[in-house]
Amino acid sequence: MLSYVVSRLLWLVPTLLAMALVTFLVMHATPGSPLDPVAEGANALSPEAQKNLAEAYGLDKPLHVQFGIFLQKAVRGDFGTSFVYKTRTVAEIMAETFPVSLLLGSMALALAVVGGLTLGVLAAVYQNRSWDYVSVSVATLGVSVPNFVLAVFLIVIFSFILPIFPTGGWNSPRDWVLPTVTLALAPMGIIARFTRSSMLEVIRSDYIMTARAKGLAETPVILKHVLKNGFIPVVTLLGPMFAAVGTGSFFVESIFRIPGMGRFFVLSMTGRDYPMIMAVVLIYGAFLALMNLVVDLLYGILDPRIRY
Amino acid sequence: MVFSTPASDTSLPTPGAALAASRAEIRGSSLWRDAWRRLLRNKLAVAGGVVVILLCLLAIFADVIAPQSYTKPNFGRLYESPSRDFPLGTDQLGRDILSRMIYGARVSMLVGLGAQVIVVLIGVPIGALSGYIGGRTDLLLTRFVDVMYAFPRLLFVILVMSMLGAGLMNIFIALGLTGWVGIARQTRAQVLSIKEKEFVESARALGAGFWRVMNRHVLPSALTPIVVSITFGIPEAIFTEAALSFIGVGINPPTPSWGQMVGENQQFLRSYWHLCVFPSIAIAVTMLSFTFFGDGVRDALDPKLK
Amino acid sequence: MRTPMRISEAQIDLFARRLESIGVGRRDFLKVVCAMAAFGGLGFATEARAARPSRPGPGEKLAKEQVLRYGGGGWYQSDASSHDFNKDLYCTGVPALFAGLMVFNADFVSVPWMATKVEGNKEGSVWTFTIRKDSRWSDNSPVTARDFEWSWKRQLDPATAAPYASFLYDLKNGEAFNKKQMTDASQVGVRAKDDWTLEVILDGPRGYFPVLAAYLAALPAHRGAVEKHGDKWTEAANIVCNGPFTLEAWEHNKQYVLKKNPYYYGAKGVHLNRVVIPIIPVASGALPYENNELDMTLVQPGDLKRLQSDPRMSKDVFRYPFPGTWYLLPQTTKPPFDNLKVRKAVAHAIDRENVVKVSQGLAVPAWSMIPPGFPGAVDDAKIKAIQKYDKKLALEQLKGTPYEGGKNWPKITLSMRDEALGAKPLAEAVQAVLLDSLNMKTDLEVLEPRVFRDRLWKQDLQFIWIRWFMDYPDPHNEYFDTFYGKKTTGRRQAWINDAFDRELEAGRDTRDPKKRLEHYKKAEEIMQQDVGYVPVAWVVRYAAKKPWVGGIERNKAGDFVADGNIYVDMLEHVYITERG
Questions:
Q1: Which residue of B has its CA nearest to A267?
Q2: Each residue of B185-221: pLDDT tens digit?
Q3: How close is the nearest chain B Cα to the Cα of C393, in Å?
Q4: Are the C-beta atoms of C143 and C136 separated by less than 8 Å?
C-alpha cells in the first residue's frame, strides 16, 4: 500500500515535467507578445522599453535556458511574478484565489454528490417509472445546459423576477448560492446518471438476487448492499470532477465576479501571462493527480477485492 | 470547466464489455442485430436517435430548409421578437434567427463529428498499439496519455486555439488534439483484456500478423467502448465549441454557431431574450439527444446492463 | 493670468510625441488642445484652481450616507496591476488616490492642484511650481516639492524600469539618465529649491510642460512607503496617498474601497466618505446597475435601448462626448484591394445609414475622419459624394476588373481586434452590406488584441475593421499620426500617397489656422479619392447614474464629463442625495 502511494507520487514528477514542457512550448509558439501593455488603449512600448522588460523578465534568454530557470525556481514553489499583476507573485495570487475556488468547488461538489446520489438512487429504485423519468430529466438537464447559459438564466430568475440573490460578488453566504448551484448542476447530472446505471447493475447482480431470494426485506437490501456497491464506481468519478470543480470554472467565476482561480484559466492565456499559465496548468495537473490517487485509495477501502 | 461525460473519460472496468466481446467473436454479426433490437426497445434512445438524425438532416439540407439566408440583414427589423415573419425573431443585424440556427446545426454537427474523427484517428491507434505491444512502448504511451489526461482541457484547447487562430478547421484540430485521451485509454483497456483471450492467442500462434490480428480480432471487440465513447464525445465537442465561441476564439462570422449566438447575447438576456434562449434550447436538446442515444447504444451493446 | 506664450509647431510636435509615448492616444487628449486653443495656445491656468466644491442643487438634500458604488460596463473591468501611477500610468489603478501638481478640469484645462502657482521663464524652458502648504499625505506628512523631485527621478531611474519613462524626457538629462548614459541623478532637471518650490529645468523651450504635469504619469509616489514596502507599497495596508481619497481596502479581483483622505486640503469640500468600486467584467452589462448594486455605470449597446425606454431608468442615461471614428482599411498591397476600382466600389458599397443601426444608438454615419464639431471636420458635398452609398455606382466601379458583376472574388478576410465595445455587430453589418452590394463574401476574423497589433504593424492583414479614438482635436492627430506615409513605426496601412503626405506636411508647417484646415481638407479628399481608407461611423457613448448621484461636472458645452484618461477628477465632486 505504502509503496503503491510512493510510486504513484514519484510518477507525478515526470508527469508534471512533461506537462510543463508541453505547455511551455505551446505557450511560446503562440503569437502575441507578453510584453505588450495590459491596459486597453495603452500605447505599444518603445523598442528600448521592450528590451528592458524582456531583460527584467528573462525573456531575452534562449528557450531552453528559460525553461531551466523556470524549473529551478518552480521546484522551490517560486513561479515568479505575474506579467499582468506586476507587483504580485504567482504564488501569492494562487494562495489568495485557490481557497476561494476550493470553497466554491467543495460546496458545489457536496451539493452535486448529495443531489446526484438522491436522484440516481430514486431513478434506479423506481426504474422506468415516473420517478425515474423525473430524475433522469433533471440530471440530464444539468449535463446538457452549458453553465454560462445556466448562470444567466439563474441571474434573471433569482435577481430580477424574484429579487432574492445579487447578480454577483463574493461577500456573504447569500452570494454563494447562485454560483454554487450553477457549478453543481453538471456534476450532479453526471453523478445521478452514473449512480443510476451502477445501481441497476448491482440490483440485477446475482448476490442481490440471492439476498432477495433469501427473503431479505427490500429496504435493507437496497441500503446495505446496493448503495455500498453501487457507490464504488461513482467514487472514481469524484477525482477528476473535484479537480475540475475545485479549481474553479472560468465561466461561473467571471459571470458571478468571484475572486477565484478559475478565471485565470482563460485570462492567463489571453494576457500571455507566462508565469501564470505555467502555474495554473501545473497546479491543476498536480491537484488532479492527487485527487485521482485519493480516489484510488478510497476505492480500495470501499472494495476489499482490490489490493495494491 | 467543461465536464466530460463519464463514458468518455473514465476507464472504468466494464466487465460486460469483455464478455460481449468474446460473444461477438462467437456469434459474429448477430451481436449487432441483438444490439439493434435492444436499442429499438429503448424509447428514450430512439427519441434521441430520431432527433440526432433530424439534426443531421437539418445540417445537410440547411440550404433547402432554412426559410431565409443566414447572412441577409434586415436593417429595418433589428432585434425583433418572434413574429409570423420571423418565427424565432431577428438578431442584431435583423437576420432571421431560425435560419441562422438551422445553419448553426451544420457547425455543431461538423464540430461534433469532425472532432471525433480526429479523436478516433489519434486515440484508437495509440490505445491499440499501447495495449497490444505492451512492455516499454505501453509504459511510455500510457505515461504520455496520463500527462495529456492531467491537462485542464479547456485551458489546453484555448492554448491551441490561440496558437492556431479561430476557425472551424482549427477547432477540429484543437478538440482532436486534446480529446483523444479518453478513447485511447479505453481502447487500450479493451485490447489488453482481449489479447490474452484464447482465440487471439491461437490466431497469433497460427502466424497471423499484427494487422490481421488487430483488424480481425482485437478491434472489432474493442468497438463497443469506442462507439460509446464517440456518442458521448460528440456532445462534448459541441459543448466545447459553444464555450470557445463564448470566449470568442471559436467560429468566424458570418457563419452562425449556437455557442457564439449564446455567448454573444447572454449578457443581453434581459433586453433581447430570444437571441440567447433559442440557441440555448438547441444546444440543450442536442446534448440531451446525444446523451440519451449514447446511453441507449451503450446499454444495447453491453447487454449485461439490461 | 500671464500673457499667453506662443508655442511653436515644433513644440506641439514634441508635445504630441510625449503624449504618444505614454499612449495618450486614446480619446480624450482631444480636449486638451481644445482647451489650449481656449487659453490662447496655453492649455493651462497658472493660478490655483478656485476651490469649487460641488453643492447640492435646489431641492436636493444630501444623504446621510455618502457612499458611491460605481463601475461596470468597462470601468475597472479587471484587477489593477497596482496603483503606482508614478511607475506605470497604465497600472489601471484608481487615480483619485493621488494628486499631482496640476489637474485637468472638466474642460480639460490643466489647472494647478498640489501647486498653487506655476511660472515659466520667458522661453518656457524653466518652470517653477509653488507647492501648496495646506495639503498632506494620508500619514499626515506634508506634500512637498521634494516628493515630486523624488518621484520623477524615480520614474526616470533605469532601476525602476518604468515602461513609460520617456514621458519625462523633456527634463534636462532625463533621457540620458534613463538610458544609463549618465548616472548622476542630481543632474536631472528637477530640483526642490526648498520644501515649497519645485524648479523644473527642461531640455529646451517646452511651453506645454504644465499640461504634461497634469497627466497621470506625473503623479507622485510616497517615498517612505516605496522604500519600506517596495513594489507592494500600493497594497491597502501600505499605501500612503495624497489625493482626495485613500485606499481602505483592496480585495484583489473583487473590489477597491476608497475612504476620504482627511489630510487632503480640500477634504471639507469632498462629500463622499467612501467609494466602493467592484471589479466587474464587461460581460455583466448593466445587470448590477439595474439590480441596484451600483450607483453609476457605463452602458453597453445591448442595454442602451432598453434602459432608454424604461420610464424610470431613461432619466439615468446620459450621453457624453467621445470623438472617435470606425473605418475600413483595404490593404492596397493585397488583392483584390490593390485595384483602385475595387476600393472605390467598397467605398460606395457601404450602406452607412443601415450599418450604424446595429449599434443601437452608439454610432452615427461618418463621411470623413473627423466628427462634426471638431477642428478639421469637413462638411463638403464634394467629399461626401466620394464614398456616398450607391449600390449601382459601386457595381459600376467593378467594370473592367476581374470582379465585374461581383464575381471571382478571392478569399477575403476582414480582421478586427477583440473588444467589447459593440465593434463586432458593426463589422458584421459591414460584411452584410458588402455581400449585398458587391456580392463580396468576407470572413470576419476577430483577433486577440496582441495578435492583431502584431499583424497590423506588419501590414500583414488583408482587410481591416479598425477605429481611431481622437487623441487631441487637431487634424494633425487624425491624419499625420495615423496615415502619414513616411512614418517609420506604427503604420496601420500599406497605403502611401505622396500628394497626401505633402498636404500633411504643409498642414503641419502652416501657421494660419484657416489655411491649415484647407490643407487637411485637401488631404482628406486625396485619401478618399485614392481610397486609402473608407470612413464608416463615428462613435457615440453613454453612461448611467442613479437619480441620487449628484455633482458630476459638466463642460462648457453643458455635457456631463465622466472619469477617463484625461479627466480623473470626478469623485471629488460627486455627492449622494436622499432618495426621494
A1: B155
A2: 888 887 877 777 777 777 777 777 777 777 777 677 6
A3: 21
A4: yes
A100 near A170, Cβ under 8 Å? yes
Pairing of strands C274-278, C255-260: antiparallel
pLDDT at A263 (0 to 100): 81
A to B CB pairs, distance under 8 Å: 142
CB C547, CB C316: distance < 8 Å: yes
Residue C473's pLDDT band, with cuts at 50, 70 and 90, is: low
> Both ends of chain B: CA-CA distance in Å?
32
Contact state of B253 with C431 under an 8 Å Cβ cutoff: yes
Adjacent-strand bridge partners of C554: C560
Helix axes A2-29, A63-75, angle to 10 degrees: 140
Most C-contacting residue of B267, B270, B272 (CB-CB within 10 A), to test interface: B267
Tell whether B12 lies on the interface with A, counting CB pairs under 8 A: yes
Minimum-distance CB partner of B152 among A22, A233, A265: A265
- Tell if the CB–CB gap between C279 and A257 is shorter than 8 Å: yes
pLDDT exceeds cutoff 80 at C350 = yes
Name residue, grid cell 440555448.
B280
Mean pLDDT of chain A: 81
Taking one residue from B and the other from C, the number of pairs with CB-CB distance under 8 angstroms is 77
Contact predicate C192/C144, CB 8 Å: yes
DSSP E strands in chain B: the ranges are none
* DSSP secondary structure of C127-139: EEEEEPSS-B-TT
Q: Could you tell me what percentage of chain B is helix, strand and coil, using 3-state DSSP and rounding each to the nearest 5?
A: 75, 0, 25
Whether the CB-CB separation of B254 and C432 falls below 8 Å is answered with yes
Over residues B39-61, the pLDDT tens digits come to 888 888 899 999 999 999 999 99
Q: Which chains touch A (3 or more CB pairs under 8 A)?
A: B, C
Nearest CB to C453: which of A36, A46, A96? A36
Q: Let me know: does C94 contact C258? Beta carbons within 8 Å.
A: yes
Pairwise CA distance, residues C55 & C69, whole Å: 20
Look up the pTM and report it: 0.80
Angle at C457 between CA C24 and CA C463, to 5 degrees: 110
Residue A200 near chain B (CB below 8 Å): yes
Q: Is the peptide bond before A146 cis (omega within 30 degrees of 0)?
A: no
- Amino acid in the structure at residue B195: K
Element (H, E) at B132: helix B97-133
List of chain C residues whose C-beta atoms are within 8 Å of the C-beta of residue B249: 448
φ and ψ at residue C65, rounded to 5 degrees: -85, 110
Q: In chain A, which residues have their Cβ closer than 8 Å to the Cβ of C158?
A: 52
Which among C471, C476, C486 has a CA at the least distance from the CA of C519? C476
Q: A240 CB near a chain B CB, below 8 Å?
A: yes
Look at residues C371, C344, C357, C330 and name the one whose alpha carbon lies nearest to residue C426. C357
